[in-house]
Amino acid sequence: MSDHKRPSDYEVLTAVTDAAEAAGMRVGPVFTPTPEMRQAAAERLEVAETAIRDASGAVPPVRLPFNPTSRQRQQRWSSRHDDPLWLLTPAEFGWLPDGTTLICIDGHRVVKGVDSIDQDTRGGYLAFGLLESQIILEKEKKNG
């Protein structure tokens, strides 16, 4: 894993806001990012993708009563490598057992029931998910 210190979301937002204001842009609901802002965002995404890729295969598996990879509207965060990060809905998060290791969209790891996990959603999904390699589906129980 890289030793590069990732800026917090607050630091990134503050830097973007300060840059926009310094460039004379109206900061509010709508502003047009500069090429430098777009480059900074692309670099941050690359750092996160690298951290997610580094986590691949090294995260404990978890048995799930649902299959996030079979959703009609597939919601993969990182799809640029063989072990994508699947974001979770708040309901799916509730079904996970305590002790489940989750990966954030910025690449850092958290453990349900141990770490503080932000429940904010975008498009109905948390900023946390499971790597495809972690997912072990529970077998359906047959009646009779």
What do these coordinates show?
This protein has 144 residues and is of the alpha+beta class. It contains three helices and seven strands; from the N terminus they run ααβββαββββ. It has helices at 9-22, 35-55, 90-95; strands at 62-64, 76-78, 85-87, 101-104, 109-111, 128-131, 135-137. The strands form two sheets. The protein has a five-stranded antiparallel sheet, with helices on one face. A two-stranded parallel ribbon has the order 1-7.
Physical arrangement of strands within the biggest beta sheet:
2-3-6-4-5
Low-confidence parts lasting 5 or more residues at pLDDT below 50?
A: 140-144
Find the structural class using helix and strand composition.
Answer: alpha+beta
Q: Determine the mean pLDDT.
A: 77
What is Rg? Answer: 18 Å
How many strands in all? 7
How much strand?
Answer: 15-25%
Number of DSSP helical runs? 3
Query: Describe the biggest sheet?
Result: 5 strands, antiparallel
**Principal-axes shape call:** elongated
